[in-house]
Amino acid sequence: MKEVPVRIRRLPAATDLPLPRYMTAGAAGMDLYAAVEEPVILAPGEYRAIPCGIALALPPGYEAQVRPRSGLAREFGVTLLNAPGTVDADYRGEIQVILINHGPRPFTVNRGDRIAQLVVQEVARVRWEEVDALEDTPRGEGGFGHTGR
């Protein structure tokens, strides 16, 4: 597995929280922690940006994706409003997670809760080559649900 060095800065509001980390040897995502000062209660249907207390300096050619935690979705109906969120290599601000409560009951975010995952990926930059037609494929223009259930 390729390791990529990424500079990280722990912000003053998160000096007591862990840095993102892989929870198992085969994990693709690192857990992000809530750096809230006080508990945040999300009513059903409510969403809010939750700070994580860190800033990154990703190398050029990389991005970080902020993804939901499946356990929060399964158990509470809580997920990310913009999944996945994208952290660009040139962004230096605080990582925040936009949580939304799709569940039937209020959900409380406490300091130090694991609220999302961070996946760092290499990114390809494209150069458009405009053409008059595209080559045929077996799928063709078949879109949403074209292969049935």
Question: What this model shows, in words?
Answer:
This protein has one helix and eleven strands; from the N terminus they run ββββββαβββββ. The protein has one domain: Distorted Sandwich (Deoxyuridine 5'-Triphosphate Nucleotidohydrolase, Chain A), CATH 2.70.40.10. The model has no long low-confidence stretch (mean pLDDT 95). It has one helix at residues 70-76; strands at residues 7-10, 21-22, 30-33, 40-42, 47-57, 62-67, 78-80, 85-87, 94-101, 107-109, 114-122. The strands form three sheets. The protein has a five-stranded antiparallel β-sheet, with no helix packed on it. A four-stranded antiparallel β-sheet has the order 1-5-9-7. It has a two-stranded antiparallel ribbon with strand order 4-10. It has 149 residues and is mostly beta strands. Helix content is 5%, strand content 38%.
By secondary-structure content and strand pairing, the structural class works out as: mainly beta
Molecular shape: globular
**Terminal residue distance:** 36 Å
State the name of the first-level CATH class.
Mainly Beta
- Quantity of strands, as a count: 11
Write a brief structural summary.
The chain is mostly beta strands and 149 residues long.
Question: How is the topology of this model organized?
Answer:
Blueprint: E1 7-10, E2 21-22, E3 30-33, E4 40-42, E5 47-57, E6 62-67, H1 70-76, E7 78-80, E8 85-87, E9 94-101, E10 107-109, E11 114-122
Antiparallel strand pairs: 1-5, 2-3, 3-11, 4-10, 5-9, 6-8, 6-11, 7-9
